[in-house]
Amino acid sequence: MRNRVVLMVFAVLMAACGSGAGNASTSPSATPLSGTVSVFAAASLTDAFNALGTSFQGANSGVTMKFNFAGTPTLVTQIEQGAPADVFASADTTNMDKLKGDGFTSGISQVFARNKLEIVVAPGNPKGITGLADLAKAGLIYITEAPTVPAGKYALQALKTAGVTVTPKSLETDVKSVVSKIELGEADAGIVYTTDVTAAGSKVSGVPIPDADNVIATYPIVAVKATVNAVAANAFISYVLSAPGQAKLQSFGFLSAS
Amino acid sequence: MRREGVPIIVVVPAAIGAAFFIVPLVGLIVRSPWGDAVKALTAPETLEALKLSLIASLSATAVALLLGVPMAWVYARVAFPGRNLLRALTTLPMVLPPVVGGIALLLAFGRRGLLGAWLASTLGITFPFTTVGVVMAETFVAMPFLILTVEAGLRSMDRRYEEAARALGASRWSVFTRVTLPLIGPSLFAGSVLCWARALGEFGATITFAGNFPGVTQTMPLAVYLLLETNQEASFILSLVLLLISLIVLVGLRDRWLRFA
Q1: pLDDT at B249
Q2: Per-residue pLDDT tens digits for A37-60
Q3: CA A170 to the chain's CA centroid
Q4: Which of A162, A178, A249, B136 has minimal CB crowding within 10 Å?
Q5: CB contact under 8 A, A186 and B225
Q6: How far is Cα B234 from Cα B236, in angstroms, rounded to an integer?
Q7: What's the angle, vertex CA B20, arms to CA B19 and CA B23, rounded to 5?
């Protein structure tokens, strides 16, 4: 009985080796990409990167894409504590510089997208919010992201430029939880990225922030030093920066990289 | 009795299991910057979070005692159809992911919730983003520990004392306060402490239902989570404080149990 199991395992292993060798011999020029690519990406990239991952995987059937979306500083902490990441996509340059400075990146980081801030409100804007100044209205429940999260830092910056002082009711851990609390009706307004308003569709409305007060967020991407799959990781980064990748990002409301 | 050696097949997995719990604690102790401990502990944000945590968790325990003891009494003493189902439903948060509890609370007591919408429109009361919301989230998650502990106490006590008191003419209320409560004292105490410790450590339901703002809804666990991103050393120290409190609770409880048993 035991011998049979061992034989079966051996047979399966042989078959696996055989198919690998077969592939290599049929396409000697370009070795097909394989293995898993774990992308640690800012929460605001959730929908766009899921779509990018699907199309990248479609073109490279040997690759399995895995995504971990969270507030950017959480991702930095996770990578520095040894989480198995291959690619890091940040929502700001500060956190990218931190990871780079601490020696956890490989190669240069490249800006792949930009984003603007927008005020997110309930569908149809029932509170009649027209701009940043309205956020300070009495009785209005305004929430934002913690200042440690890039979006929270940008929101503070925009409010400061506009000369508006407002105390938020909550400092959420990422943009997505701000949007969900607006969707649930618990808060009246929040500041998130334009792309988050686009992603939420008809469940929320957006109020634009004039360019003079707005903050342009830049998103850099880099390969993580500890990656065990550098080839596929860099291929994914190239795809994000390529024309089709950029087109996909823009379909989610991101601004082009330059 | 012949003394048998402890079989290795038991010792090895048991040792691995013990290490699984102890190594993370050691990690926390080793990696904590002891030199900055005082500074981290006395930082205004820390004290604010600590104060809020104490107020909210003690309030949650008080609410749990007020509502949970009568619930335990009903479960232990009143036979009615659906009792087991009701008990299961009211102690569900013990096994429910706290974030799910937070979402459920939002759907019930949020501004658009089943009851919350009515409370907001008629009385103008809302719970999310308030300290009351924190107390509600903590009570939701922690009260089941008190209910089950007190019910167990009520079931295991000797009811003849109550019957004797009744036979001697004591009212039901004075039997409850002067006979029943003292008799279940140990489980009442243990239940309260367990409930308080669970409330103190509550994270998921709190951040989901009540949000996160320093001094209003940012309790110690929330502060630890956010500090991990900006000031890791401080978050290690605060984690240790929470750990120490939990350890004191468990060890203290153990001694109590042994003394009363």
Answers
A1: 83
A2: 999 999 889 999 999 999 999 999
A3: 22
A4: A162
A5: no
A6: 5
A7: 65
Long-range contacts of B119-124 (CB under 8 A, 24+ apart): none
Show the domains of chain B with their CATH numbers: 41-260 (1.10.3720.10)
Residues A84 and A38: their CA atoms lie apart, in Å, by 7
Distance (Å, rounded) from C-alpha A235 to C-alpha A106?
A: 14
CA distances from A31 to A20, A42, A137, A231 (A): 11, 31, 60, 10
What's the ipTM? Answer: 0.77
Alpha carbon distances (Å) from B239 to B104, B222, B251: 28, 11, 18
CB B194 within 8 A of CB B253: yes
**Domains delineated in chain A:** 33-114+218-251 (3.40.190.10), 117-208 (3.40.190.10)
Of A74, A169, A170, the CB nearest to B229: A74
DSSP 3-state of A4: helix
- Beta-strand pair A142-145/A217-224: unpaired
B255 touches A at CB < 8 Å: no
Residue with structure tokens 């325990």?
B61
Residue B58 forms contact with A (CB below 8 Å)? no
Residue type for position A102: D
- pTM for this entry: 0.79
Name the strands in the sheet holding A189-193, side by side, starting at the edge strand that comes first in the sequence. Answer: A170-172, A142-145, A189-193, A117-121, A205-208
